Fold each of these.
Amino acid sequence: MNFSANDFGATGVAKVIAEFERPLVFGMPGGHTINIYDALHSMQDRVECVLVREESIGTVMAEAYGRIAHTPAVVMAQGAWVLGAGGIGVMEAHLGASPAVILIDATEGGSFSHHGPYQSGFGGYGAYDLARAMDAISKRVFVAIDPVQAVQMTQLAYKHAMTGQPGPVTVVFHSAALLAPLGEDGVERLHATKGYAPINPTPSEESIAEAAKVLAKAITPVIIAGNGARSEKSRAALAAFARAHGIPVVTTSSGKGVFNEESSLAGGTMGSHGQDSANELVARADVIIAIATKLGSSDLLNERKDLVDAGRQAIVQIDIEPLNIGWTQPVATGILGDAAAALPMLSKALGDKSFEGETHVLASGGLYNEINIEDWKDRERVHPRRLARILSEVLPSHATLTCDAGENRIYMLHDFQVREGMDLLQPNGGGGMGYAIQASLAVNFADPGRLPVAVTGDGGFAMSLHALMTAVESQRTLIAVLMDNQMLGWVKHGQGDRPLLSDFHPFDHAAIAFAIGCNVESARSEDEVRSGLKALLSAGGVGVLVVHTDPNVSFKSVETKMASKGHEEVETYEDVEVH
């Protein structure tokens, strides 16, 4: 796209957005960003703009969109309110490595910025510092003070969001950057956006050979797959690699959904609220292949030696970001590159080497054993663990589930079985409430062929009513499943016999959702859950299933045995050479 000397900075920014791979803007016009929206008015055939009811809706949608589509969406609104209201999604994208481009203005008051004008965010006396504040929750922040910088920094934002570990990149615009013309000299300094393409490394032959040498000595290897393996190509490469060499696959909680849990090689979800079988597989492994995971301390049960121990296990780590390799655990060898490229190369290097992964999965206890609870069909409320199981049975294979923070997420991590074709996302960085419905709305834009299903508690549901309004207004399709136990379950069950500020008034959530314009079903039994889901699936549009769940069931009921018992001696495999 050509730039003109008469183009204002805002027009140049709009032209750059139109050159993105899949131009999509979530936001609300405000401040000087109104000028960028004005320029986009004539580009609506190329750029899709989505009005959100509140800035946090836009940032969470962008985070989920980036994770699913593997390309950044743009969030654009007045800077004060992206920071003040929309910080949840930016922080989640930063901590969870989702690409996003955040375009905001400082509303600094121009030549009056040193006199503390209304809403000023450029850091002068009497003002707040928008750039410094966003720097705390962004991968990188650019500050544009002239129109050429506005264009170039928007181009760089796309590049930096996608190079290495993905993340949100923020551009803060001074008013002059958007309101001044580019000029002839400025145009000569500008180039097409395609020249700012992200660059990521190709795995080296040497690192592949070293990893194959480590695996050649293995007896009971296991794969730990993380959220970074979520792309279609990475998941296909992961499945093919595990199948070709008979290696069990365990996922981190943020990685749940990247591997088909119906597979005989599926070890489940590790961690404090995953399956005991998954932790057992990892603990007994002599070689760990960590794929697109940082191996964070929360995944490793605060780095328990009887789960993962680099002194007795050889770790091969594959990651797109060099800083992540050997960050929390020393590695035998690291492979720098995308899993989709590295795994076929490693498979070729291993040749016909195969392990008895199915046998090890069975020996660990297997996945999804029958839930040891009473028959709840005649009770007045639904058991939340049974609800998670029913969702995995009834929902179609093209469903993408999004979870909120709190107990609902724990039950889904532990008891929902991700079948072939399904996907599951949870807030894997900050873990804030008010995530699931916004994220499911983003699925509509990232992959229109998917069925978005949001699972939330009544606390998160109340925080997301404006997201339901956006979904209805934009005529999208999604189903929200509300676990209604009239409390902040995680908080109250953690408070024990001293609960405080954790009970809710028994609001009629079904009536509220109906008033917004949703199709609504309520359930107090498992049969009503099944029939309600089928009715909403048939109705299409925006549906809400209010499930009255048992408030006496606690997240502690699914805590892994390893999280509560002391350290145990685990066999050391001396045949493995750890460097």
Note: The two ends are 52 Å apart (CA to CA).
Amino acid sequence: MAINRLTWKIGGKAGEGIMATGMIFSQSCSRGGLHVYDISEYPSLIKGGHNNLQVRVEDREIFSQVKGVNILIALNKETILLHKGELVNGAGIIYDSSEVIEPKEINDNIRLYPIPFNNIIKEIGVQGIMKNNVALGASIALIDYDFGIVGEVIKDNFKRKGDKIIDENTRAAKAGYDYIKNNFKNDFEYKLEKTGKPGRMVLTGNDAICMGAINAGCKFYAAYPMTPASSILHFMAAQERRFNIVVKHTEDEISAINMAIGAGFTGVRAMTGTSGGGFCLMTEGYGLAGMLEVPVVIILSMRPGPSTGLPTWSEQGDLKFALNASQGDFPRPVLVPGDIEESFYLTQVAFNIAEKYQTPVIVLSDKNLAENHKSTDKFDPKKVTIDRGSYADPADLAASLDTTFFKRYKYTENGISPRTIPGMKKGIYTASSDEHDEEGSISEDIDVRIKMMQKRARKMDTLAKELKQPELVGSQDTDANADADITIIAAGSTKGPIKEAMILLEKEGIKVNFLQIVYLNPFPSEKVAEVLGSAKKTAVVENNFSGQLADIIKEKTGKDVDKRVLKYDGRPFYPEEIFTAIKEVVTHG
């Protein structure tokens, strides 16, 4: 019997409450002290199509989804046909007893739990749409989990809809629970038990980005909805009054970035968010922020391209785009969080960099990180110290005898010039998209151009000295192994499945090091070159077709990696896929 280790999946048509039911299951497990990780899949349709959500549960911290499903809740027969190949031996299917399942359609080692959803719904007098909760309750009974916890989570999720809705959803879940207990033996192989260690949050990367932005003092957010960045807009709008934030749902992405630039110009911490197609529209504004030296944070949440691509799926195909977007040379700091915690803390670091270095900053995410939930400990809101950068002293400005415009773009050794904001006495300057002199006046003078380009470029040199270098780690965040068989290099959400794969590889006697690139620009060239030079074998793992990170490593260090482990079908890596690929490299080269 397997205790506190299973993968649960629910599937059905859009509109059947797939996501809501999955979240209740995730939250219920987390509230019982267990660790959870969930991943949702849905087509880019306004209505219809097959939706599913998978929840992995264990009593240790987990970092990604895995192959193999132990419980499948099928709200329609299509779900069984689509996912039967994922079921492990001894797995169970909870399904509507009105659906006919032929023995040839499933493995002999799969256990069937037919439930008369419609009859139960009629008997207890609730809405037909609540069959999802009947199925939820049935799965809770099957794994012998505490129904009281589930009831509390249902109450919390539906409290805004009133007592009647809470009661109906609870009764639906309890009816499914009771049906399993009364009609089937208690001999299902997989069970969950409370651990007595509740208190973790269940968040997405987008949730964490928003929390980080709010903690950093963001007071303006503008965006046009675009999957998978849309939920940032929803989250920020919901917190608008509580945290005194101005949130604008703009008519397009051009307006979004221009509004954010305007807010940043006035001294407000501002952010915008989009995906690749929306960022295409933002690129002219992105360059404008670079020329004006205005701080603004841009969340670029990747999805597969080109063009509309796969709107609701995941990929890491925009790394080079983020590094080179907009014309000309200007500072382009790019930060790449790899998990929920880093999404929270690095967003705050992005705001600090934007203001201190007076430049636009990109936080690069993807659908896998943006929308999947993971249980995590509470964040430390004081871990990142807020740095508002260099502002001119109002008293010094007022006492100044200088009657000319303020030298907003003054040549400095580190490239950072003092700022003023509108309303500061004697702080007037010209803010132009053209090249300009120290006061902002448009200039095409050769010496001015050279000095101003060099001034802006010096910011990146200064920033590079300030940033923490990537750390080489072994499995489960232990110290790196000096005699590791292979070193994996990656950036972003591949971190989770890599960490899980490292555990599998260690069990096979394969020693692995992992180097995570968090700052894509400025790139840690010396550290990466050092690691490549000392490693026995190297592999880059990334969710794109061409191996963009490997190309960047080659450009910045002059060194090749031994293997590019790539996936570009719109789905994130499974740890098993990385395990197989890395084992092959170590074994056969």
Note: Residues 21 and 145 are 16 Å apart (CA to CA).
